[in-house]
Design brief:
By secondary structure, the protein is of the alpha+beta class. The chain has 13 helices and 18 strands. It has 3 domains: about 120 residues, Aminopeptidase, CATH 3.40.630.30; about 140 residues, 3-Layer(aba) Sandwich (Aminopeptidase), CATH 3.40.630.30; about 110 residues, Nonspecific Lipid-transfer Protein, Chain A (2-Layer Sandwich). The strands form 2 sheets. Strands 1, 2, 3, 4, 5, 6, 7, 8, 9, 10, 11, 12 and 13 form a 13-stranded mixed beta sheet that branches. A 5-stranded mixed beta sheet has the order 16-15-14-17-18. α6 crosses α7. About 5% of the residues have low confidence. The structure holds coenzyme A. The site of coenzyme A has 16 residues, from β4, α3 and α4.
Length: about 425
């Protein structure tokens, strides 16, 4: 194949990029033009990259959406990789691999410390250091059970200030969501920006209600309500919002939610949820370990130190030996020495523990192992998958404590 090069997508490339998109996923549906204009505007100028051949013909493209994502309740800059597609006649020759590597490098330059994506094929992204981080979970409830919660809430609380949300509520909704992530120490959910919320409310894209101390955002189609966001600081606010969601049970008997699988609605529902769970896997990557670790939140009572050696050819900022230290809810990743970086983590022997010499007693992972560790996979699981070697059982336990989390993503992108 002719020589491949990557460069920023510019305005004039957009028709070619859209044509490849349509050859990959079919034509844009209703409202698709507006969506395309919006995502292009969001990523042109550094966040949309093309792979071109020697005559500058666009063969593939991908976008890095600028997101904020909670890890341990604190929000980090996350590059959401989306819109990766390759011209069908140029497939199977490394175009996408070239592209994803360029996207990782660009995220490092932009200051996105972690990255996530919803893959159609895991292999492609594993090559660039991504690993499965978790699943997006869709729970399904009978609307009449949720309606019942509303009756209870209204009786208990009287007035809750319930009203439809308007664009000027965007700031308050954003602040409530940020505070809620911090309060519950969650990992995974993305925070809608004030601008994104304002735009969504202005365009009437989704239905949204606010109460004192909470809000809900949902969609209604095909006799089902789909809840995308529900934040409540009090039981009364939660009950009132769930009541609104369920109030249309006569016309929309089913309610889907894309929330924390441990949303407390499960604890207060006056009936069993319909056990109909749908899960969509997502992948994650650490782009800048030092920055990400400093930004992540940790339990206030956790005090632990652990060593880790990372081999990461595509994000050299991650490579080397690290001392990870957590105290008073904050983490610090400090370079411990200049341990030589390798391309990939070695495969451990049958007992899962390799001699310590090679990594000086520390666990050794590649980019995929680091991604999985970051997302709360235990070291024992990483060893089983051949994604970690070296270290000791004591070191494993320390790393498990450092990265313990059950991450979930609520928004598909
Ligand atoms: C998936 C896609 C981006 C791959 O582009 P490409 O330039 O052919 O990819 P590469 O040549 O760099 O291949 C990289 C690896 O991806 C994997 N891969 C590529 N196409 C695949 C497919 N259709 N199914 C499963 N895995 C696939 C393979 O493991 C491949 O490596 P291998 O050929 O050595 O086994 C391209 O087929 C495409 O545009 N598909 C439609 C849109 C899409 O699914 N985009 C991804 C959104 S997350």
């Amino acid at each position: 194949m002719s020589e491949l090069r990557t460069r920023d997508v510019v305005d004039a490339d957009l028709p070619a990029v859209l044509a490849i998109r349509n050859r990959s996923f079919g034509p844009l549906g209703t409202g698709g033009d507006l969506w395309w204009q919006r995502v292009s505007a969001e990523t042109l100028g550094g966040r949309m990259i093309a792979v071109v051949d020697e005559s500058d013909r666009v063969l593939g493209a991908g976008r890095i959406r600028p997101y904020e994502q909670a890890w341990g309740g604190r929000h980090l800059r996350m590059g959401g990789v989306a819109g990766v597609y390759v011209e069908p006649s140029a497939r199977g020759r490394g175009v996408a691999t070239t592209l994803t590597r360029a996207l990782v490098t660009r995220m490092g330059e932009l200051g996105d410390v972690v990255s996530c994506l919803f893959p159609t094929t895991a292999t492609l992204y594993r090559r660039s250091g991504y690993e499965i981080g978790g699943v997006q979970t869709r729970m399904t409830y009978a609307a009449h059970h949720l309606r019942g919660l509303g009756a209870t809430g209204a009786r208990r609380a009287g007035m809750t200030g319930l009203r439809p949300a308007v664009p000027s509520d965007a700031r308050q909704m954003h602040d409530l969501a940020r505070a809620s992530s911090a309060r519950h120490g969650v990992s995974g959910p993305m925070l809608r920006s004030v601008a994104a919320l304002t735009g969504m409310l202005e365009r009437d894209e989704l239905t949204a209600y606010v109460v004192d101390g909470g809000f809900v955002v949902y969609d209604l189609s095909e006799q089902a309500v789909t809840v995308e966001d529900l934040v409540a600081t009090t039981p009364e606010a939660a009950a009132t919002l769930w009541g609104v969601v369920g109030s249309g049970s006569s016309a929309a008997p089913t309610v889907h939610t894309f929330l924390d699988p441990r949303d407390p609605v499960t604890l207060v529902l006056g009936g069993l949820p319909k056990v109909k769970v749908q899960q969509t896997p997502w992948m994650a990557r650490v782009v800048d370990l030092e920055g990400a670790f400093a930004g992540r939140g940790f339990g206030g009572h956790l005090s632990v130190e652990a060593d880790l050696v990372v081999d990461d050819a595509e994000a050299p900022a991650n490579a080397g030996r690290w001392r990870l230290s957590v105290r008073d809810g904050r983490g610090t990743a400090t370079r411990a020495d200049n341990a030589p970086a390798r391309g990939i983590a070695g495969t451990p022997p049958a007992d899962g523990i390799t001699p310590n010499g090679e990594s000086g007693g520390a666990l050794r992972v590649g980019a995929r192992g680091l991604a999985a560790l970051w997302c709360g996979w235990s070291v024992s699981r990483l060893r089983q998958a051949g994604l970690a070697s070296g270290g000791s059982l004591d070191g494993d336990a320390a790393l498990d404590d450092v990265f313990a989390c059950q991450p979930f993503i609520t928004e598909y992108f």
